[in-house]
Recover the amino acids of this structure.
């Protein structure tokens, strides 16, 4: 084998391997949407859909499911954020409204974003919302107070062994993040 | 396995070889770069070891005595990073640099300049990382070094990470680039530079295991680079890959990290399998039992390593189907691993075994690695993993496979090939002392961790409940004993480097086969300029 031939073969192998490495770097980023899609389909991470459901569903009066509501504040969030009822019993397919109250004790305007999480995770794709304060971020002026509605129903396809569903909301302070985005838009 | 035609050549080009600092800085010679890698990894092993001793000093007695918990966390973090990326990985790359060209009859690595670069990135990467620790220990205001564990889970490393997290990110990027370049070099060398007649299925198993390791490196080091890049943009550029507030998910981090992390485990252990597969046949004076099955077993371990990552995260709340899949896949890995252990034992069966130093280390490897493998099988079971998760049982498991596994095999390799590298036999008396002290102390150090782990002692805390006190006392004694024993190895290596000792012949081990034993000891600066003919 000639020296020239070896050099060329080496270069060809190197090129393939470098491309492979770059592709795997890309794959790391591709895992982000792949993860979201898989979680969306399977409800693995307990996230509920962030878009409104149409509400067309049959009522299943044979089952009665307990739905519990939990609220948590993200780090540094000062809002007083509570569900008006901690727990209710609903039939699958029954459209129900629950209200959450929120108070801003700070002396500045704060923008909050609630992130839902459902336990058990398998119930997440079956908890559907026609309206939710978590679909958008919420703005409260200093000392402001609000009542935020959430309208939901449970899909009758909810696995038979699930009798209790816990819906948890974590309220994050996204004021800086939103302001930064608005500044960017204004600058354009 | 490989019969070699007589190969004699004399080189008088030694006087062209550069001397002094320039020789090492600008070296493109695979042997020099191999030596640099080996000394560097040894230095990192000592640095990481010192950090381990700080940890064990703190844990010797319950309560806080030596360091505050904040610094303790930095020690566990940087100890893990230094040992994984600074000690074990560069040591195996050093062995690959030295031995692969000699084993396949190539004059050098395929890409010598890149080889130089991939080594010289490492000292800079680790200077950056360790500078964070030095600033934390001695700097004004003691700014924290990375303190989130070597697995750097988000949001601990993103939202709550100290400022030095950015040093860590830069350093990991550099280590990754170094590893990828090293891996590409190995693959190109093995695929294109083999001597005539050296077919793939005639290659020594060390070359095979390193080839497969190199493919794993090219596949997963970029994923690690992706993970730290996402951390960087989350920290400074307003993205929310791992931040729930912005629509991301912290659990995603664990998936990306362990997609890298599990193959990484095999990156550290596969070269060890190759080393042991070279040493046991030599001292059993038999051919390796089941050569082809060894190759296929290594390849299947590598492939399976891509579909087991979530066994590190059974407790995040996966559905039953997910845990079952990852549990079965993990258990499946014990089949090819079992094939290997079986083959090593079968190689020794009815062999004329002698117990020279490399063989002692290799045998200790087989027994203790298997011990670590068995605790791995226990951890693979989802229901019991809920009890073992993040306890000292896990710490015991991965130290058995990494210290008495990977590092023992690297010692075995050093004692086996030091005559070839230095031209003198390693000092047997010191070597025996090093072996027996390490063997006894490593078990005193890690075995009791199983018990405290099963009893519920969590890892990564600077303090513990009183009932764990006695075991931790003995574990710390074992740690200091093991650490001090390594000074013997420093002396062995320095003596060899100073050419003090019995002169080694070209083939110092009676039963050894392979091209590396056909060149003189020490191996001349240039070897196989004319390729040997392998029959």
């Amino acid at each position: 084998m000639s020296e020239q031939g070896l050099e060329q073969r080496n270069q060809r192998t190197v090129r393939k391997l470098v491309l492979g490495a770059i592709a795997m770097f890309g794959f790391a980023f591709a895992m982000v949407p792949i993860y979201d899609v898989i979680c969306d389909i399977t409800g693995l991470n307990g996230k509920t859909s962030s878009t409104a459901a149409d509400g067309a569903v049959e009522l299943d009066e044979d089952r009665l499911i307990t739905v519990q509501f939990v609220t948590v504040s993200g780090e540094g969030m000062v809002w007083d954020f509570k569900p008006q009822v901690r727990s209710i019993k609903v039939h699958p397919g029954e459209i129900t409204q629950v209200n959450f109250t929120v108070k801003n004790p700070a002396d500045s305007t704060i923008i909050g974003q609630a992130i839902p999480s459902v336990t058990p995770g398998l119930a997440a794709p079956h908890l559907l919302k026609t309206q939710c304060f978590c679909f958008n971020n919420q703005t409260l002026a200093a000392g402001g107070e609000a009542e935020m509605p959430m309208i939901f129903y449970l899909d009758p396809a909810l696995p038979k062994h699930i009798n209790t569903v816990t819906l948890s909301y974590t309220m994050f302070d996204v004021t800086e993040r939103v302001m930064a985005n608005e500044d960017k838009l204004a600058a354009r | 396995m490989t019969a070699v035609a007589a190969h004699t050549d004399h080189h008088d080009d030694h006087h062209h070889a550069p001397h002094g600092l320039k020789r090492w800085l600008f070296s493109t010679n695979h042997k020099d770069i191999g030596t640099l890698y080996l000394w560097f990894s040894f230095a990192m092993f000592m640095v990481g070891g010192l950090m381990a001793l700080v940890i064990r000093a703190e844990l010797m007695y319950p309560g806080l005595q030596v360091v505050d918990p904040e610094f303790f966390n930095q020690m566990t973090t940087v100890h893990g990073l230094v040992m994984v990326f600074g000690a074990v990985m560069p040591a195996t790359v050093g062995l690959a640099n030295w031995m692969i060209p000699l084993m396949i009859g190539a004059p050098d690595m395929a890409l010598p300049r890149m080889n130089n670069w991939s080594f010289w990135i490492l000292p800079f990467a680790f200077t950056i990382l360790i500078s964070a620790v030095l600033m934390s220990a001695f700097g004004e205001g003691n700014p924290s070094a990375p303190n989130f564990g070597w697995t750097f889970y988000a949001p601990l490393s993103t939202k709550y990470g100290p400022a030095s997290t950015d040093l860590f990110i830069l350093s990991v990027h550099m280590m990754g680039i170094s590893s990828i370049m090293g891996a590409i070099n190995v693959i190109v060398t093995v695929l294109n530079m083999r001597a005539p007649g050296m077919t793939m299925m005639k290659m020594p198993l060390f070359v095979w295991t390193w080839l497969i390791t190199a493919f794993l490196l090219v596949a997963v080091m970029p994923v690690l680079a992706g993970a730290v890049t996402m951390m960087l943009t989350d920290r400074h550029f307003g993205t929310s890959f791992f931040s729930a507030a912005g629509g991301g998910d912290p659990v995603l981090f664990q998936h990306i990290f362990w997609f890298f992390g599990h193959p990484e485990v095999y990156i550290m252990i596969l070269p060890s399998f190759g080393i042991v597969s070279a040493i046991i046949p030599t001292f059993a004076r038999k051919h390796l039992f089941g050569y082809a099955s060894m190759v296929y077993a290594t390849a299947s371990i590598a492939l399976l390593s891509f579909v087991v990552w979530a066994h590190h995260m059974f407790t995040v709340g996966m559905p039953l189907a997910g845990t079952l899949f990852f549990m079965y896949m993990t258990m499946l890995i014990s089949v090819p691993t079992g094939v290997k252990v079986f083959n090593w034992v079968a190689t020794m069966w009815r062999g004329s075994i002698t117990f020279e130093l490399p063989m002692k280390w290799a045998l200790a490897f087989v027994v203790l690695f298997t011990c670590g493998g068995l605790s791995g099988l226990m951890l693979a079971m989802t229901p019991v993993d809920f009890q073992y998760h993040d306890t000292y049982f896990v710490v015991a498991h991965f130290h058995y496979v990494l210290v008495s596994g990977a590092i023992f095999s690297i010692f075995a390799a050093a004692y086996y090939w030091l005559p070839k590298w230095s031209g003198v036999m390693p000092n047997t008396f010191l070597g025996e002392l090093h072996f027996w002290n390490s063997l006894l102390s490593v078990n005193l150090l890690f075995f009791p961790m199983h018990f405290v782990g099963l009893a519920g002692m969590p890892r990564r805390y600077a303090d513990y409940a009183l009932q764990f006190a006695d075991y931790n006392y003995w574990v710390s004694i074992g740690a200091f004993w093991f650490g001090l024993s390594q000074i013997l190895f420093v002396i062995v290596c320095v003596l060899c480097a100073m050419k003090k000792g019995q002169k080694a012949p070209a083939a110092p081990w009676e039963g050894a086969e392979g091209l590396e034993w056909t060149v003189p000891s020490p191996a001349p600066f240039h070897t196989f300029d004319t390729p040997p003919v392998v029959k």
Q: What stands out?
A: Chain B has 14 helices and no strands. The domain at 28-518 of chain B is CATH 1.20.210.10 (Cytochrome C Oxidase; Chain A). The radius of gyration of chain B is 23 Å.
